[in-house]
Amino acid sequence: MTEQDHKTIEQAKAEGKYIRTIKSFVKREGRLTKGQQAALDQHWSTMGLEHAQGLVNFEQVFGNNNPVVLEIGFGMGASLVEMAKNAPDKNFVGIEVHLPGVGACLSSANEAGVDNLKVYEHDAVEILRDCIADQSIDTIQLFFPDPWHKTRHHKRRIVQSAFVQSLRSKLKIGGVFHMATDWENYAEHMIEVMDQEEGFINIASDINSDENAHSIFVERPEHRPLTKFEQRGHRLGHGVWDIMYKRVS
Ligand SMILES: C[S@@+](CC[C@H](N)C(=O)[O-])C[C@H]1O[C@@H](n2cnc3c(N)ncnc32)[C@H](O)[C@@H]1O
């Protein structure tokens, strides 16, 4: 039995049914390097946030009420740390399930000397549900999510209606959901899902020049760092699609 067979997980639990939720990731038990372990040991107490803490108050956590940028699935954290370093007037929150990635992120954050970044090591779906207050986020970013290439795996793609509506409730009105992918079929899927969702508009036409008034993709904004992986892709002639939707209601 899967989540889709029931209106809500709560309803199923009330009926005493076991629910197997479809995850957007497969937990890899990769080994931690010494550096990643050391970074976790030294910096988790200052940079880590726990699912068990429940609803989080960002003003308390960061000591200011700067805009909050939430990144889902930050990998090793390279672009997240660079963004945090380049925008000290914003607060950054990263969510990642892969522990070595979290360790790597803490290590680079420490090297970069950023103090406007906190991270969760947990499933983003559950963090959104249990820890993030409604209308508390200015920007949500989802860069290069696992594409789940095979058709039979498409249900694992994180961009799905229920997930998007959860993001919508966490975004402030006017807040932006920024996606990027190097997989054209996933870009098309993102547009298809987002265009059907209530409460969002694609802002490509607002951002791009008049001659591109009907475009659905935006140019990579300067604030999204070009990763090594992406640079390599460019050299090989691969495309990357940036997509931005604004919460309007
Ligand atoms: C293809 S990687 C991209 C990483 C990074 N954004 C980048 O551009 O290099 C996707 C990442 O999303 C993470 N991920 C997938 N589903 C997630 C979820 N539900 N919650 C948190 N992280 C997730 C995976 O562990 C993986 O590190």
How are the SSEs ordered, and which strands pair?
Elements: H1 9-14, H2 34-47, E1 48-49, H3 58-62, E2 68-72, H4 78-86, E3 91-96, H5 99-112, E4 117-121, H6 124-131, E5 137-143, H7 161-170, E6 171-181, H8 184-196, E7 200-202, H9 204-207, H10 228-235, E8 241-247
Parallel strand pairs: 1-4, 2-3, 2-5, 3-4, 5-6
Antiparallel strand pairs: 6-8, 7-8
Helix pairs in contact: 2-5, 4-5
The chain binds S-adenosylmethionine (SAM).
The site of S-adenosylmethionine has 20 residues, from β3 and α6.
Description:
- This protein has 249 residues and is of the alpha/beta class.
- It has a single domain, classed as 3-Layer(aba) Sandwich (Rossmann fold).
- Helices cover 37% and strands 18% of the residues.
- It is built from ten helices and eight strands.
- Strands 1-4-3-2-5-6-8-7 form an eight-stranded mixed sheet, sandwiched between helices.
- α5 links the parallel β3 and β4.
- α2 packs across α5 and α4 packs parallel to α5.
- The model has no long low-confidence stretch (mean pLDDT 92).
- The structure holds S-adenosylmethionine (SAM).
- S-adenosylmethionine binds next to β3 and α6.
List keywords for this structure.
249 residues, alpha/beta, eight-stranded mixed β-sheet, 10 helices, 8 strands, binds S-adenosylmethionine
- Architecture (CATH level 2) name: 3-Layer(aba) Sandwich
Largest sheet: 8 strands, mixed
Global structural class? alpha/beta
Helix content: 25-40%
The third-level CATH topology is Rossmann fold
| Strand order within the widest beta sheet | 1-4-3-2-5-6-8-7
What would the average pLDDT be, to the nearest integer?
Answer: 92
Basic shape: globular
Low-confidence stretches: none
- How many angstroms separate the termini? 34 Å
Bound molecules: S-adenosylmethionine
Assigned CATH superfamily? Vaccinia Virus protein VP39
Number of strands: 8
